[in-house]
Amino acid sequence: MFTKQLSTPLKLIKRCYNRVTPEIISSLKHQLGEGQISTSQSVREHHGKDESSIRITIPDVVVFPQTTKDVSMVLKLCNHNEIPVIPFGTGTGLAGGVSPLMSCVSMDLTKMDQIVDLHVEDFDVTVQPGVTRKQINNYLKDYGLMFPVDPGADASLCGMAATSASGTNAVKYGTMKSNVLNMEVVLADGTVIHTAGKGRRSRKSAAGYNLTNLFIGTEGTLGVITSATLKLYGIPEMKTSAVCQFKTVGGAIRSTIEVIQNGIDIARIEFLDEMSMRLCKRYSKLDYMSEEPTLFLEFQGSQKTIEDYIELTSQITKSNGGGEFMYTLKQEDTNQLWAARHNYFYAVLASSPNKKSYTTDVAVPISRLEQVVEEAREIINKSGFLGPIAGHVGDGNFHAILLFNPADAEEVQRCNHVAHEISKLALRHDGTCTGEHGIGLEKKLILPEEVGMESVDVMKKLKMALDPKGILNPGKLLA
Ligand SMILES: Cc1cc2c(cc1C)N(C[C@H](O)[C@H](O)[C@H](O)COP(=O)(O)OP(=O)(O)OC[C@H]1O[C@@H](n3cnc4c(N)ncnc43)[C@H](O)[C@@H]1O)c1[nH]c(=O)[nH]c(=O)c1N2
Ligand SMILES: CC(=O)C(=O)O
Ligand SMILES: [Mn+2]
């Protein structure tokens, strides 16, 4: 009953979207000014895709608002005319979130790139949606502060909130969900809200529903995030990176599990399997390492704390068959190590220039990690696809990057099927199909299996309440 009531109006909404007409484009020009709107083919192509392999169509027009008022005006106009709008951060997403399915307006937020308000003494900062991860950290370093959530790519911070991003540091500092205190969001009808109340930035609040976390991970389907107030941290006194290589995948994964279970406050613990190491060595010149399952680690804190952690962690890796525990204080080596990790995705792509990639993103409770990584490897080997595995194993989160031939329809379908099998494997082990990249277009079909149809119906009800004409990023996240 509940499902029927919700799915019928959603279907109706899908049928009655309007196209972006020349009249709409001139209204947008009139509202925003000539310089803030583009219909050029190359600009539209850039906004029709992210870093995944998904390519469907391109937006009819791209708008570049400079203020929250601009965002609100565009949404009002598009809502009135029932025209889809897709927010665009920096296009580094990996789930097809910015790819249009129909005639639409792409809303590029990069011109709103101001750091609005820094409170050094309270460890928080408010940024506009175009501010990126590298931009904020460059700005903060003179104050001895940092924002730790690090997806590797130089993504926009509000795009990161929209996808509930994390990355290598989440094992210590948490994800976007635990690091955003407040957001300004413009709803489909142009209404501007502040999820925790205007200007509020207390560390805790029990004031009603948690609207901040409601909007995190909504992938542009419930509102456009026009500012975010973020938690900051002091730059650690000292950082030490380390590497340990193993004869078996099991040894590396068991070491990770024991590090976490022993409460070691590790800052990063990243796994790369043999194949990943082969590709990274080639791409990033990691000459001193071999092609074996490997852990990249980072410890932070005082010298004494780091020494204690290194001692404990090296005992753990040794007891699991790990080789030499190599650690370094040299900034040069540390930079090379983490650049190699951040370029992992591109190292894999570079290995097969004619292929495209499907990046899986499952996360499971840490006690299940060894079994799930092993079973994922079996699924991939059986399928015959090349699929190196690497990831943020301290959070039980890993990626298999499946490489397929985009010109072979049967192979594309088989690749989707393998990715789906890996997601289902994670669900059987109480995990999720996406630890950090989001649902986008890729994982819509498995969402009901993960959260249950009743929960999907609640999501649809929320969508209906906040965006009754369904103009915000239609066809994403919810099937
Ligand atoms: C090499 C590499 C490596 C990684 C990753 C990418 C790449 C290329 N990513 C994925 C990516 O960096 C991550 O999804 C970012 O959060 C996307 O931010 P963008 O600003 O690029 O959003 P992008 O423009 O790609 O948009 C993503 C989604 O958010 C919506 N959106 C964007 N801005 C919005 C706004 N202001 N308001 C509302 N909706 C908005 C869009 O509509 C879309 O649905 C990742 N991620 C991760 O979590 N961990 C990782 O380890 C990595 N690693
Ligand atoms: C692609 C990605 O998420 C990673 O390299 O961690
Ligand atoms: Mn990742």
TrEMBL record:
One of its GO terms (biological process) is lactate catabolic process. Signal peptide: none annotated. Residues 55-235 form the FAD-binding PCMH-type domain. InterPro entries: FAD-bd_oxidored_4_C, FAD-bd_PCMH, FAD-bd_PCMH-like_sf, FAD-bd_PCMH_sub2, FAD-linked_Oxase-like_C, Oxid_FAD_bind_N, Vanillyl_alc_oxidase_C-sub2. It comes from Helobdella robusta. Its EC number is 1.1.2.4. GO terms for molecular function: D-lactate dehydrogenase (cytochrome) activity; D-lactate dehydrogenase (NAD+) activity; FAD binding; flavin adenine dinucleotide binding. Belongs to the FAD-binding oxidoreductase/transferase type 4 family. SUPFAM superfamilies: FAD-binding/transporter-associated domain-like (SSF56176), FAD-linked oxidases, C-terminal domain (SSF55103). Keywords: Acetylation, FAD, Flavoprotein, Mitochondrion, Oxidoreductase, Transit peptide. GO terms for cellular component: mitochondrion. This is Probable D-lactate dehydrogenase, mitochondrial. It is found in: Mitochondrion. Interacts with CSRP3. It comes from the Eukaryota. Involved in D-lactate, but not L-lactate catabolic process. Gene3D superfamilies: 3.30.465.10, 3.30.70.2740, Vanillyl-alcohol Oxidase, Chain A, domain 4. It catalyses: (R)-lactate + 2 Fe(III)-[cytochrome c] = 2 Fe(II)-[cytochrome c] + pyruvate + 2 H(+). Its main location: mitochondrion.
